[in-house]
Structure formats: C-alpha cells, structure tokens
C-alpha cells in the first residue's frame, strides 16, 4: 500500500540544496556576518555602517518547511501538488513555489477550504503553521498524499492545548484569532468532548476576561462579552462556566514578553477570584507551560540587543519581511520603540533612483495600505540596522543592503556580492 503521510521529508536534501542556494543565498549577508555582523561602506559624508541583528531570517521550522516543499516537487514530478494556504508568510518564497507548479488553496471569508477537487493521486503540503483538526481529517478522507511541514514549536503548543482540554481547562490563547496558526492551535481542544478556547489579542483583551472573572464594576455584561469574543471563542462558549479553569498558551510568533505578562495576570486574577475557596491549591484553576518559540525569542532578543545595546540604537532600522508575517510585525514594533523604523516587504520597496521607500506603518494590521517616504536616508554618515522575519530569506536582506548603498551612491564594492 502506498504511504500517504510524510512528516520527515524524502531524504532529498542534497538534491535540492543547489536550488535552495540559488533561490535564497546572499554572499553579502555572509560577508557582513563573517565581519562581526557589522560593516562600513563608503567614506566621508556618504559613509554607511550596516549592523545586522545576530539572529534573523529563516528559523529552523521555516528552513524545514521550505526544504520539504522543494523535496516534494522533486519526489513527485508528475503529480498535482497543492498547498493549504501559504507555506510561510513570505511573498518571494510563495511566488517561487507557484513557479514550481504548486497550486495554493485559500480559505473563503469564513475560513473554510474547498477540498472537493482533490483526488487520491494528488499531493497536498501542510504549511509550517499547521492546519485545523477538522481540515486534517477532511484531507485524510480524500486519500491524497500529505506532506506535513508543521513546525515543531507549533506542535508543542498543540500538545499543551490538547492537554488543557483533556483535563477540563479552557485554553486562553494569546494570538490573532484570524491567523492560520492560532486557528489550528485553537482547534486542538476539539480532540476532547467539551473542550473550549478563547483568544486574546493583547493585554487589553486579556483584561476584559479578567474583569469578567472577578466581576469587576467595569466588566462587560454576559451579552457584551459574548458579542466581543464571538469570533474568538469556541462554539457554545459560556463565560460563567469556561472561565473557571484556564490554561494559557500562545501563537508562537507573538511578543514573548507580552505572552508571559498575560499569563501572570490571568493567574493573579483567578487567585483573587477563587483563592479563598476551601481546599484551593495552585493548579486547581490555572495552568501555564512554556510555549514560547525559541527562534522567536532569539530573534526578539537579538533585535533588542541591536537597538538598545551599549552601542546605542542605529540612526534607523529596516525590518524586512511579509506584511502578513506576525513575527516580522512584532520585530518592527520592538525596533520602533528605540529608533526610526521602516517595515518593508522586500528590497523592491526601495527605489534607489527616486530616493523613496514604501513601508507598512509599524504595528498596523497587515492589510494597511503602504506609505511612501521621500529622502528617507538622512544626510551625513549613517548607521543602519537590519533584521528580518523568520520567513525572510537571506537574499532579500542582501538585496536590501545593496539598494540602501546604491541610494547613497555606493555601488561598486557590493554589486558582485549581493
């Protein structure tokens, strides 16, 4: 019988390595890294010092997902290959997969995928974010071949959320309710009867939950609470029942400090509400496990070191990555607390001839229209910091450095290395 589920690739890494190198490698990035993550170009008033964060770009989970997608195309050259959503949130990577003949399946306005056209002869790639429990079951029913690239850090969160549901705890998830990863994570509660979840975007939404738990004067009424969280809670959610026992988890790409702070305040809220109960003990009402993604944490720590370290912040920061990439958006928010910051989708946002840059306002929703800044590089010697989201390949960072330098009229020494 033909194997129909793959999670460990096909052993074709050597075969695809030349393709990966050609599509995503940057000699310029390698050069700056080798020189201590900092290099100065030009001289006099045109001098530009480029400082790279010590951790940026593709993380292990993204590397693995992209590798498996390339391996899948190599393993099944004559079959139709589909991808549920986007492999990662990077337009360049996703365009390359389209060029390789991968067909993207997108959800409708209600978040539902149409798998009706799939046959047992087809191959379907599951993205690094994973898919919901329901979508996975429907795909298995088609009999198609599944290549699962779900990130291990995401699977770790799933395990905790399922455990909460099994033990009768509601999963309170710090994340964006519309994000593919958060939807997949929340669905894990349905593995157990009565499983429930509620999703909070930030501390402000978490406090709405805490006020309700404690019956605070400012708390939303039951009707207002259910209306606010209508799309952010499990079907049939009952705040009077489901907020009595809570387990905290998070979308892996959220700001780690925010996730930890929300967990601590929810624990304190439950203690204030139920702490005086006879027989009350730690763990009766609240649970929290470490579900912070190490790669996300490392990239956030590295950018804080770059903008808030002993050298002082650079004159400006560029954050390179897809506008719908959660981890990239959070890096931009961190940088903007310390220096002028531009979040750009890729190097194409810089027009060296016109001296302009297109960018997304920091912290704004992913579909916010781009803005354009003219003469965005201040005159005189500059220090520019760069980082990139976990789904941004090195060649896009290298191209960005090259265009920054060309905007300042510095070109010859980098043209061959980009």
Describe the structure.
- There is one protein chain.
- This protein is an alpha/beta fold.
- The protein has three domains: 24-59 and 295-415, 4-hydroxy-3-methylbut-2-enyl diphosphate reductase, catalytic domain (Cobalt-precorrin-4 Transmethylase, domain 1, 3-Layer(aba) Sandwich); 60-151, Rossmann fold; 153-292, 3-Layer(aba) Sandwich (Cobalt-precorrin-4 Transmethylase, domain 1).
- The chain has 15 helices and 17 strands.
- The strands form four sheets. Strands 1-7-6-4-5 form a five-stranded parallel β-sheet.
- The chain is globular.
- The N and C termini lie far apart (48 Å).
- The model has no long low-confidence stretch (mean pLDDT 94).
Write the layout of secondary structure elements.
Layout: E1 5-6, H1 13-24, H2 27-34, E2 38-41, E3 48-52, H3 60-75, E4 81-84, H4 91-99, E5 102-105, E6 123-126, H5 133-142, E7 145-148, H6 152-166, E8 170-174, H7 180-186, E9 197-200, H8 203-214, H9 222-228, H10 239-242, E10 246-250, H11 256-274, E11 286-288, H12 294-308, E12 316-320, H13 326-336, E13 340-344, E14 350-351, E15 356-359, E16 371-374, E17 382-388, H14 394-407, H15 412-415
Parallel strand pairs: 1-7, 3-17, 4-5, 4-6, 6-7, 8-9, 8-10, 10-11, 12-13, 12-17
Antiparallel strand pairs: 2-3, 14-15, 15-16
Helix pairs in contact: 1-3, 6-7, 8-11, 12-13
Number of domains: 3
Query: Shape, please?
Result: globular
CATH class of the largest domain: Alpha Beta
Helix and strand composition category: alpha/beta
User: What is the average of the pLDDT values?
Assistant: 94
Sheet with the most strands, sense and barrel status: 5 strands, parallel
Provide the spatial order of strands within the biggest beta sheet: 1-7-6-4-5
Task: Specify the CATH homologous superfamily of the largest domain.
Answer: 4-hydroxy-3-methylbut-2-enyl diphosphate reductase, catalytic domain
